[in-house]
Each structure stands twice: as C-alpha cells, then as structure tokens.
Amino acid sequence: xxxxxxxxxxxxxxxxxxxxxxxxxxxxxxxxxxxxxxxxxxxxxxxxxxxxxxxxxxxxxxxxxxxxxxxxxxxxxxxxxxxxxxxxxxxxxxxxxxxxxxxxxxxxxxxxxxxxxxxxxxxxxxxxxxxxxxxxxxxxxxxxxxxxxxxxxxxxxxxxxxxxxxxxxxxxxxxxxxxxxxxxxxxxxxxxxxxxxxxxxxxxxxxxxxxxxxxxxxxxxxxxxxxxxxxxxxxxxxxxxxxxxxxxxxxxxxxxxxxxxxxxxxxxxxxxxxxxxxxxxxxxxxxxxxxxxxxxxxxxxxxxxxxxxxxxxxxxxxxxxxxxxxxxxxxxxxxxxxxxxxxxxxxxxxxxxxxxxxxxxxxxxxxxxxxxxxxxxxxxxxxxxxxxxxxxxxxxxxxxxxxxxxxxxxxxxxxxxxxxxxxxxxxxxxxxxxxxxxxxxxxxxxxxxxxxxxxxxxxxxxxxxxxxxxxxxxxxxxxxxxxxxxxxxxxxxxxxxxxxxxxxxxxxxxxxxxxxxxxxxxxxxxxxxxxxxxxxxxxxxxxxxxxxxxxxxxxxxxxxxxxxxxxxxxxxxxxxxxxxxxxxxxxxxxxxxxxxxxxxxxxxxxxxxxxxxxxxxxxxxxxxxxxxxxxxxxxxxxxxxxxxxxxxxxxxxxxxxxxxxxxxxxxxxxxxxxxxxxxxxxxxxxxxxxxxxxxxxxxxxxxxxxxxxxxxxxxxxxxxxxxxxxxxxxxxxxxxxxxxxxxxxxxxxxxxxxxxxxxxxxxxxxxxxxxxxxxxxxxxxxxxxxxxxxxxxxxxxxxxxxxxxxxxxxxxxxxxxxxxxxxxxxxxxxxxxxxxxxxxxxxxxxxxxxxxxxxxxxxxxxxxxxxxxxxxxxxxxxxxxxxxxxxxxxxxxxxxxxxxxxxxxxxxxxxxxxxxxx
Length: 918
Description:
By secondary structure, this protein is mainly beta.
C-alpha cells in the first residue's frame, strides 16, 4: 500500500512537471523575444522633383477618395498601404492604424454623419479575414468588420467567401441608411447604415462574382457594373434587368449617371467609354478615350449651371467634357456628351501626377462644385484654385505630407562614416527613385531623382548603379551610374545585349568588386570588370548553358572566387522557379542547377550569404502543400526546414501560408504564398531576416535557429506600440558602434505599399572578451544593503559586473518527493534612479555569453526582464548569470548608488504605463 501511494505521488509530481514543461514551451513562443527592436518609419513626405517634373511624387498609388460634409476632412484608400486621413483639406495625411486590411480600394463618408465611414479592401491573408467591408462609427478611429459582411455558404465559390474582397461603395443620397457595396461575391446591401448586411446576386443562375462599381440615384435606382456587365434594379435590389441589345462588356469598370436624367448612364469597361440614354437597355454611343491605358479608369459627373454638366474621365490623364441635357428630357435621343471633344489634360501638365485613381468635389456646392482632390499613382493632389469657373481647370499641388504608401521595386544602401551618414536608395512603382545620404537620422532628407518607375539598385560607398523605366532611347529600361546621393553621372555609355528587366522585386544588377558589376537582361547574364570604362566591355557568363528566362541575381565572394546565383522563371515570389549557380568569371563556365528538397516544387524567393556561397536561404514552394522556409549550408545538397520560422510565417495559424485569391499586382487576384523576404546580414553571419506578406518581419541572431517577430501584424501601434509592415521585399544592413557592451544593428526595410522603415536593435558583445581586451575596464559591483554602487571614472570604457545569486529552490509539496519545482519563469530586476540614457545594461551567463532580455524605462528608473534557460528551468534555480553596467561616453564620471530589487513572475514584465495604455 505504501509503495503504491509513493508511486501515486511520484506520478502526480511527474505529470505536474511535464505540464509545466509543456506550458513553458508553449508560452515561450513569441512571448519573450530574442531581441528588443524599435521600428521607425522613414518615408519621404514630399517629392523634390516638383515643380520641375510634376510626375515626381512620394505618395504611392491611391485609389478611392472621400470627403466629409465639412469639406475639410478627407479619406484616401491606398492601393497597398491602408486608409489615410487628412483633417486640414488635404495638406497633411496620416495613416488610420486601426484599419487593419492594407490593400484598400474605396472609401465613403455618410453625407449626414461625418463620423460614419465605409471602406473596402482586398483579401488580407487571414484565416478569419477582416477584409472586404469595414465600417467606422467614430471618424476612422476604430473599425468593425460586421459578421454579416460575409455571404452565406453556397452563395459564391468557397474561395471567394473565405478570401473576401470588396470594391466600389455608394450611399443612397435620399436615404443614407441604405448602403451598397460591390464585392467579389455580388452586391452587399445594408439598410441600417452598416450594422448588418445581406448579399444579392443579380444573376442567380450561377454563383455570385465581382461587382466592381455601384451607383444609387433617383428614388433608389441601382446600377452596377462587373463581371456580368451592366445590371439595373428599380426596387432596391430585389430584381434586376440588363441590356436588351448589345450590353456593356464584362469586367472591371466604373459607372456614373447624369445629374439630370436617371436613364443617362456613362460607364468605362476596359479602356472604352460608353454612353446609354435608355437606362442601360442599349449602349450605342462610344466616347473616344483621350489617352487609353486601362490602369484603373474612372468616370464621374458634375452638375454645372443651366442645362449642362461635366463628364470627368481619368485614365493615364484627367480630362473633362461639357455635356448638355435636352430642354425636354426624355429617354433616347441624341447623346448628351460629345464623342470626342475633351478639355485637358489636367494631370502632369496641370501639376498633378498621371495614372489617375479618383476625383472628389466640394460637398457644399450643389452646382458648379469645384474638383478639390485628385488621387493617382503619385498619391493625392489638391486643387490650388478655389472658385468656379476657374477651378474647373484645376492646377494641382502635392500635400505637405503625402500618404506614405510607396511601392518599392528595388532598394540598396552603402555605409558611410558616422551613424547618421548612411546612403540609402530605392526605386518605386511610378514614383521614381529616391536617395538619402543621412538615412540613419531621425528624419532622413530625401532627394527624388527620376520619374517614374525605378527598379534595381546596386551601390557602394563610391557610386550607385540603378535602372529606370521608359526613358525612350530605343530601350524599355535604362541604366544610370551616379555619385553618392544619386548626384552627377548619367546613363551608362554601353549596354549589354538584350533589354533590362523591371517591374519585379528581384534584383537584376549587383556589384562584386570595386568596379565589377553583373547585369541580367533578356539575353542572359553579363559582367563587366570596369563599369567606369568607355566603352564598357560586357562578357556573358556561360552562354551555352544559360537557363531560360533568367531573373534575380545574388552574388557571394569567398577566397577570391565569385559565385553568381540566379532564378529561372517568373521571379515574382509566387511561382516555383529554378535556382542556378555559376562559379567564377570565366565566360566558358557552366551554370549548375540547385535542386529543391527532394526535387519537389521550386523556389519562390532566395538569398545567398555574401561571404559564403554555400549558405542559401529560401522559400520552398510546392503544389498541393504549404510553403516551407529552408536553409542550406552546403550549396543546396542538403536542406534544413526552419519549422519555427514556418510557424511565424503563418502567424501560428492566423494567416494562410498559401492563399488562392490574394491580391497580386494591381487588380490581379492570383493568390500568393506568405514569404516575401529572406536576407543574410553581410557583416554578421549569425543574423538573418525574413518577412511575410501579411505576417510580419522576423529576425534571427543565431543563424536561423530561433526567430523573433519584430513587427505586429495582429494588433495596431495604438495597442502594442509596434508597427505592421506588410509585404516587405528588401533588407539593407548597417552596423554601427553603439556603446562599450554592444553594437547597434539597423535593418532598413523596403516594402510594397508602406515604403521604407528602419528596424534597430543591439547585439551584445561577449563580456569576457571586453574584460580580456581591457582588464582595467571591468570591476565588481559594490553592495550596500538594497543598493548597488556603480563606480565609473572613465565614461565609455567602464564595466561593473554584478553576479546574480543562485537562490531559487522550491520543493514539490509531496511526501518523500525530492524533485525540485519551477521557480516563476520571468525575472524582473528593478533599478531605481538608473538613467538608461546614460547607463547601458547587459545580461550575461557566468562565462560571459550575452543572454536575451528586455529593458524598460520607468518613472523611477529602469526594469530589466528575462527568463532563465530551459536547462536551469528544469533544475529549478535561477542559474549562473551576471549583470553588467557601463556608462555611456556622454555620462559624467562619479559614484552612483542605485536601489535594486528582484521580482519573479509567471508573466513578462509590463510597466504600469503599458498596462494603462492597454
């Protein structure tokens, strides 16, 4: 009996310890970070090209616009960067951080309630999606995604329902309680101002599909355009009719109505403008497109005095036409608008940016309303002419602070002397190239060099080589060589055969020596050993074995040998591309294929260690299976699956690792895998960075074994204090000496839609190395009861070590049980009156190895928080750790008395200030 009781207690104790270990393992995921990083946005506020070239811009693509009834508050739906708001008539724009979907399309404000705002977005990658329809009841401060804003099962294809998107918004002018939104699953209707929604399929013979635009007018008549062409309802959406003759073509479109006649409609389908004078029964009139491209055309009308109104059309440029309503209005008759008599253009020639998105008018005017804001690929522009009729020929100006929604195609940097003097360059979709020579500053100074599409960037401290689109000269893209800051220089004198590639976030140029560069063209891979020569001599690498459709080049150098890696395929991060390697610079060499794990699938994105050609970091894409993050240390012969990174990439199951209808370029819904970024730090082989389209940015400081999520894709900065950076594509690393214990690592991130960011954290040095190099610099702490005494007479070169006592042993409360139990896993050291702006604090093992921790500044001083290792966790003691204090170089020498105390907790430290914020 006694033995059985002892066994029972032993089993209970064992199970308890096992449960604790399980809870420790689970709670350790993403709770206590390896590093504590700060994330700072460093985007340009304006373009320096304006007014030299009005197409110079810094705002990024903006689609829909909205204006509140007060005429001062505006909203902008950026294509890849979320919703922005201006409260000063469009001069200053700020992002609405609480609107979580970032790929946005349209926005509208209730004309009777400025606090009620509607926004639409494309699929956000989440398993439980927040995309599609969002409603704010407090002027954009907070947003809801109503549960009924999802169509019922069987109403549409499963992937459309599970991965929703929504498009045009229209509020009934006669009854704002009625709101209509086009979605990828038919038309969504709310009759209670956005609280609840129901879905209508105008063509119920098949599953519901895209409704791109909707207008409501004249006693509730509804007109829509989309995949089923034009449809009309005169009874609130219950029944629908379409053309009796040749109907409007299907697909993405825009629709508007005459302000005088509800049966006179104008629509854009593709690049063609149509007029119907019988409510859409026929569309006989085609109005000439003044400059077709089909980027995302829109069409709107504006009531003028008398029997006229203006038809405004935006595609590449903005034009208007004066239209006439008959003296005795009735359906049919002659077209109201001229078929080819446009006034304009009113974009680049008028101070604005081409490739338009939307146009809004003064809400206070019922006739002759001034166009007051224009959106385009360059962001938003305001009309500098305020009175009619002059304002009808607008002159545009960029805001003081534009939306920060730049879409990068390339980024690079070069180290310069000093912590702020960092060269950073990037190229954008339609916003040109930008350069800064003080990218390490709090607010870098930016120089907007070229217009309009900037692509690849390859740079060192002496020069920058980069590509720009569409300059003419018989080439689709052109290559420029300039001095630091993108000053001086000009177009290169000799091109390699073929055309330069662009419009992909995959570098096609790279340096591999002081004057040596590699360039990918449509004809292959070419190198030069002197980019400054005249003429430049180009040599093709491995012409006989060059893979097809070569894209994306990465370079690694070791032992005097250069290795080139390229992708063969689409190079868009979504396709299963091949990976190839070429060693050396002899033209007769051979390209060797690198096989994916088990020879299955292909590579989405990849990077190669710049100092070790055998280290490859990539995403492995497979048909019918989720992607994998993989790492090779032997040139691809063997692959390690980075399971911990996989778990972060899908947000622990919050995001689909591979979706079916996620947004890709512009209005494509081709689906995408999460991984968008992998990169090796060229200065520290232990540091790697990775990024997911929706799931954030991750950093490893131990060669990929452990990873830290350094951004916040789940909440908002208002809650967590951390930003979300979607679709990170590029990383540039900068190491700066910090203080005696550590060095500062800056990772500059380039994204699709949120522009450029700087992530900063410290890497601590091994304390034994510091003390060996400078024995006089290291001293033991002196203790006086609850105080530690820090003596430092040589600021910048003093270290005070404080061993932490091994004082935590707790027994299981069971008869005859000698097992030790876990002490609370988190340890918080409080240092009253310690100024962390003057003192640097580090945490180390007994042998001097840095230990991950977080430090918080408080009103009284500082708190250092960490958790012991799993080994010491099982042993039930805090272990052999030591604190280190080092005065920074700007401190004043002296003796300092600091009150200390230790608290243990089951949870990470949260300051009272942080708790109050939450």
